[in-house]
Every structure is written in C-alpha cells, then in structure tokens.
Amino acid sequence: MALDNKTDFKYIGTRPERPDGLDKVTGKARYGADAYAPGMLHGAVVRSPHAHARIVRIDASKALALDGVKAVVTRADFAQDLEGEDWNLLENTIAGEKVLYDGHAVAGVAATSALIAKDAAKLVDVEYEVLPHVTDVDAAMAEGAPVLRDGAADHSVPDGLHPNVVRYTEFGRGDVEAGFAAADLVIERSFKTEAVHQGYIEPHACLAQLGTDGKGELWCCTQGHWFVRRMCAALLGLEATQLRVTASEIGGGFGGKTTVFIDPIALALSRKSGKPVKLVMSRSEVLKASGPTASASMDVKMGMTKDGKLTAATGTFRMQGGAFPGAPMDMTTMLAFSCYELDNVHHEGFDVMTNRPKQAAYRAPGAPMGAFAVESVFDELCEGLGLDPIDARLKNAVKEGTRSSFGPKYKAVGLIETLEAAKAHPHYSAPLAENTGRGIASGYWMNWGGETSVSLAIGEDGTVQVGVGTPDIGGSRASMALMAAETIGIPYENVRVNVVDTAALGVNEPTHGSRATYASGLATIEAAREAIGKLCQRAADKWGIDVDAVEWKDGAAHPSGPNAGDFEPLSIAEIAGEMGSTGGPITGHHDASPTGFGGSFGTHIVDVHVDPETGRSTVTRYTVIQDAGKAIHPDYVEGQFQGGAAQGIGWALNEEYIYGEDGRLQNDVFLDYRIPVASDLPMIDTVIVEVPNPGHPYGVRGVGETGITPPLPAIACAVSHATGHRMTRLPMSPPRVLRAIQGKGVS
Amino acid sequence: MNYHTPASFADASRIAAEATGTTRFLAGGTDVLVQLRADIVTPDDLIDIKHIPGVKAITRNADGSWTLGVAVAGAEMTEHAELMADWPGIVEGMDLIGSTQVQGRATLVGNLCNGSPAADSVPGMIAAGATVTVTGPDGSREVAVEDVPAGPGRTTLARGEVVSAVNIPARGENGGDAYLRFIPRTEMDIAVVGCAVNLTRDGDTITDARVSLGAVAPTVLLVKEAAKALIGTTLDDAALEALAEAASAACNPIDDKRGTIEFRTHVAGVLAKRAAGIAYARAGGEK
User: In 10 A of CB A114, how many CB atoms?
Assistant: First the structure.
C-alpha cells in the first residue's frame, strides 16, 4: 500500500490520553491471573532439579491420594505423533524421555487450591538418572561435549561439527582478503554475551477449560492468541477453531510471550479433571523455564582506510538457544553489518544446543549481540585512526538504493538522518566529567508485516469500534484509534479499539516484529476506508446521486462539487442514526499480509561514569535518536525508545543468566537477576526522526525493537573510553570491569 | 503450622522452648514470610512477637543511650530525627534494606537473627558497640551484636531464647558513624560488601574507633586491626592505606553470583576508606 503523501494531520502526531490508563491505575485492568471460573481448580508444575537427566519413572500415586487433588498429567496426556517444531514445542512444554534443563516441566497437577496443588507437586515422585550437561555455547561445540539429542541437526550443518550444532549459515560477497589488504587498519576481536531475560513484570498466567468433546476456552497473557491457539491445538490434538483464545491485558512481553509454556498443561489438566484450571508461573519459574534470549560467542574482523571507509568485514557468530534449535543466529548474521555499505563481507553462524531453557524472542532477537561486536570494532577502528565515530559512520552509512550486507537493496531508510541528528545534538558536544566515557553506536531492525485481520463497525451514534487481533503491549490501541480518527475525520475519543478473541477475526500474527502499528494500523485504515465507501453510498442513496459524486471529509458526506447537487452534508452520526432502515449495519474489514514494512535505524549516545576503585558503572546521560517513519502517538514512540535503552542498559551492565557447576540456575529471583531499577537510569532523552515508510499510508515504521540494538555497543564503548580498556564481554559487571582496570584482562 | 501471639517475651521464650519442630519468630516478616512463600522454610511454630507491649518503642535513656523495641521498623528509625542525629550510620544501614514497602515492616532484630553475612543493618550496630537483650527460659542476658551471628542463617542463641531489645550506647561528644555498601545497582539489591566505621575524635585525632565488615566472611566481622589503623591518626593517607589493608586482610569471602573473592577483598578496603571519611567528617560536626 502506497504512502498518501498526506502531511496536514489533525489527530496523528498528537498526544491524547491513553485509553487503558484509568483501568490500569485503578487496578481494574484484568491481567492473566485475574480470571476466575466456577469450580475452578489451581494447577502447579513439577519441574526438573537437574540440568540433564533421563526420566526413569514418574509415580504420582501419593499426589493423587492427597485430598483435593483432581488430576495429574504427564507427557502421555499430550499428542503423540508430532514432528519438527511442534515436537520441540511439546518437548519443551513437558519433558518426554529426558529433562533437558533446570526447571524443565515433568508433570502438571490440578487441585482445589493453589496450596494443595503446590504440596501435591512435591509428592510427585520422579526418579532421574543424571546425565552430563553443558550450558556454555563454546563448550557445547567442543569435542567431547555431552550430546543433548542426536539427529537434531538439519541439512545446513556441514559434516564434522558436534551434534549440538543444529543449524549453520554462511553467506557474503566480494573478496574479503583483498578488502583487508586495502585497509590502513584491521581490527579483529572476540566477544561474548550472556543470556538475559525479557523481564516482563507479569508472569505467564492462564485459565483453561477443555472438554472431552475437544471444545475449549483459554484466557491467557500473550502477545498473540492465534499463535497460542495453533500451538495448543497441535500439542493437545485439537481442531484449531474449536479452541477460543482470549488475550488478557498484558504486563509486558518483549517477544517472550509469542509462544506457550503453561497453557497446554492447563488445558490438559482441564481435559483430565473436567474442571476449569488456572495456572500461574512464579517469578522463579519464569526465569528458569520461560524463554530467555540466546547467549553468544563471536569473532568480528573489520578493515578501514585512514579516511574512514570500510574495506571488508567478517563475522562468526556462535549462539546457544537452549536445548532446542532456534537460537536467532540468522538475524544476528543478517543484521550484524546492516548499517554499512560493504563490497567485501562474509558471515558465518552456528545454532548450538545446550542444557538451558528453549530461547524465545526478545526485542530484536539476535540483533543486539551482533551490533555489540561490530559497533565495538568500528569504534576501535575510529579510535585507532583518530576519526570522529559519527563522521566515520556517515562515510559508510547505508541509504536508499544501497545493497545491504545481507543482499537486498534498501528502500528509503533513515540511518544518515539519525547520525546527522546525533551530531547536532548538544549531548554529543557536551564536556565529559572525570572517569566518564562517551559511546556512540547505531543499530537496525528490519521490522515485519505478517497476517493481519481487522474489523471496524460504526455505532448507531456515529462513534466507531475497531476490533484488532494484536494485543496492546506498547500503545497500539491508542495508535489504531488515532489512525481511524484521522481516516474517518472524527475525534480520537469517538473511537474505541478492542483486542478481540480468536473467534472474532481471521488469523492474526502476534504483536511481534514491531509490526502492530504498521500492519494492524494499515488494516485499520483500509477497514475505515471501506466503511467510508459504505457511508458515502448511504448518502448517495439518500440524495439520489451517484456515489462517485459524494466526497468524504471531516467526518461527513459532502456533494463532491456544484454539479453533484446542492445538499447539506450528512455527518457520520446522521447516517449511522438511520442505518437500520437504510441497509443495515455499516462496517469495514481488511485482511492482509502486508509486505511494505519499513526498517528503522537508530543511533544512541551514552555517557557512563566508571568508579576506578570498584569498577561500578553509572549511566549519567543517554540520548536515543531513531527513525519512526511517522510517529502516530509520539509519547508511546518515545516510550519505546526509552524502554529499548533501559533494557539494553540492563543487558550491558548487570543482567545475566548464571549457571553453577551443577548446571542449575543460580539467580532465579529479581534480587540476584539484576535488572535495572528506576533509580539506576538517567532520564533518557529522545529524538524522533521521521523518514516516511513508503509502504504505509501515513509512513509508519515499527519502532519497538531497534531501540535495544545500539545500547550494548554504545555502553561498552563508553565504559572502554572511561577506563582505557576495551570491553569485549557482557555484562560489564563491576568485578569484570575492575579486573580490566587492574590490567588483569577480560574474564 | 501453629501461629502464636504471646503477650510477653517470657511467654514467647516458653513457647519456643517447648516447641519441637522448626520455630521462627515473626517481627516484620520480611525474611520469614518470604522464605515461607519461596518454600525455603515452613515453620511448625510461628511466634509473632509484635503483640508484646513496648516492641514498637524507640527510647532515649537518661544517660543518652538508646533502647529500641524489636518490632521497630526501618521507616520509624529513618523518621526519628534524634536517633538519626546520634547514629546516622546505624540508621542508614537499616534504611538500605529493601523497598519503601519493606521499610514499613523490616526490623533490626530480624535482620540480625536472619543470620545473613550481608545483613545491612548489622555492621552499623557492631561498629556502634550495640548489644541485644536476650530473654530465655532462665531469664535475660545481654549479648554483644557481634556475638549473635554464628554463620550463614545461624545464630548463637539457644532454643527458647529470643531477642527482646536492642541497646545502643550513648553517642557522646565528637563521635560519628557511617555505613556504606557496595551493590552494582542503586537499590533493591543485597550487599556484595558492607562496611561500617564508628569513631571519636579529639580535635583532628581519632581517639577511638570500631570497624565492621559485612558480606566478606561467614558472619559480619568486627575488625580490630582496622580500628587500630585509625586510632591515633588524623585520617591521613597513610592511615587510610593501613585501614584498607587491614580491612582487605580480614576478608574471607566466597565466590558466588553476587561477587568474586578478589573483588570483595579489594572493595572492602575501598569502602572502609570511604566510610571512615564520612564518619570522621560527622565526628567533626559535619552533617
């Protein structure tokens, strides 16, 4: 769908109150755990205490004998004939022959109270034969490493690699050796990042009802209820449309709620007990057994001429995504060098299995790790050649028509605009305090379209309801309302946007890939245009003229000119008030898998103070500059920018999955999984750059994910400059930074 | 689980002495209830001591010393201007624990009896020379705070013994105390290293000092060598270096998810210098 070239927006670009605000601040909003049903049981999950073990025997007799216990389910209560990703999903949801990580679900219990269920879970007797384990990506690829599962590798993996390497990619162009030979400086470095969790504040929760007739209802906290429907139907052997899934309000997702963990277990318990079953994860269960992101081990080599032109780049990216295929090495390789024009470039990626939970998407999955390595080397090249890091980036920055490092040519993109805005920003030239360093980095996320279905209906008073299938995790209801209001020409307050259940619309992909404001927004605009066509037809019928002679503007039908006839305009309220007698309800609908999504570039500037005696880092100033295409509701856009930076600060400085020698997660509570608290962050300044996306009527680009791509390298560069030591390992926790300061190297 | 609400410490002591299973005293509950919910400790007998008269009192005695009830919450200490003026180090140690909500419940005694080497309020009490009154089946006794912890999660108190008051000495003239902890974040975290310094000055010269370190050994430590490095000095650079060396030398930490041995040992010296600087300035009258 083409860009309208509309610039005189009335509602888009304003900052009206959020539609979900009152319910959320008064506690009335209903989240995953806020659902109840008559006769409801409470579920609990029995989890593995081992990193890797064979299940010898499960004896639930003591649990079933406990008063109040109504059902116990194991793998035998799920579909038996699955293959491929469905089998992976089931194996992760509930273990089969082996447990594959600390926290892996083994059985589910349903009882008349949460306390009884918890006690009953302890009474399920599981006998294990403990097996050797491996949790580190490099160790898992090494000769002699314990094999998680033979035959899991696909056809892409060359002969001779360890069976834990399950996918491989290799691509590039040009002659990298000739490119390096032409460089005045070549830097090669190895980098490592730890796995981190999305850290959404709301744990996974659901209420399930499933009858022996195969008909079910599921209320759950998710970013995509059609995905949940498809996955649960497969795992339980149901027909998709017989399961109606309703998405609750959602307390954060960041990609981690685009799959299922407990929902199939709750459904199986309900089917077995004949009662509704509620299942809620604890924080410890969330950290151990939902889907954190991958960890990475990477080697990047880049060459640059003395005037700042890149000559060649190579990268090897080894990622572990837990005990299943799926570490996002394809995204890491694809996006690593995406900011730069490169004639000579080569990528290699490895997807490696370890005894950790199955990774899930986390905000720009895979991109931040690659950016950390590449932007760090870019910074070191600038340092070595005495170049300004923004000027050097401008010399290499991609623009419309540039062939990307991963193949296709870019459409209109805004990297140069964000770099120029960064250079002009007062932050970039502000003086630095003692022991403080400044870091600059850019990053990219290509965004997504995806299956989308939206319905719009006119109320009898001329107000408008919009039903969308993308849960609102970042302000999409307000954005849809603004786009509908703009298109129809009625006030924002006259539009109510609802996230509706799976029975109400065709398939919608989740709110992921920064797609909701783009794709559901585009469908909302098209649905509104269809309704406008019908409104014009009603006016044409009333006036006895051809519909082509009716023009829609400012929320009313007008004769299109003097020749059309002399009629008073008919407002949407007037037409709606009579619609019952003029042909019935007036609606608009749009289904699409739009492909005109536009990627978003961002550039971040950060100042970090490092205490030279303790290695403790404090972010003292932070500025995010990012291309939004067109900011529909700028408050939410700025919020996305700030959120990406905040999560990136956590990932860079203190967040990490820490596994002990025994392969068990050491820090499964927020006390020790060190996500930043509010007082750890400065006010994060934002600059919205608008280079319209030609593939959306109003120019929208997704903005949610790009913001977490630059922080890792920007902060690492700032700490490197503050300490005089190049930081190549995340997190940059105080013990690690202090060792660097003391000249003990990177550990 | 049996829940008890005794009306006196003698009753509390008797209930605990007669109990045969796992017993916990409940004051603020910010450890006990968390451990209960996390399935770490499920007591057979839970003895709530908040109903005993006087447990919420902060009393300044005639000689200038202080007696604090065992259920006095952190927030009540922070908002007590006179206590804050006398013992800012103790109060700031307590104030660092948990969130605003936790501060409304958490207590000094709970923090001490939880037995964590990382307890933020304990180094300040030890540096101040505070004691606790312990009521047991055979009556009461007074125990120095540094003698209460026995190791992670353990105390030296016998079955049936319960802490019934905290006693803090009179501040006296020209004294000051301070507590600093190292955490990677700014709050909602647990000490990787903690250090309290309490000292008295005669002019610019330190005449008396006590130094305590947390999270660097199985129990919170009273480090006499570190105090010796301060006494008789004007907190000059040599004294600070000697202090840091003594503090680091006293460390016997572990490597764990919160910090490494080498990091804790080094930072103990850094924090000792910084805490000594603050205590010295406070003793000299700076607020």
Answer: 15
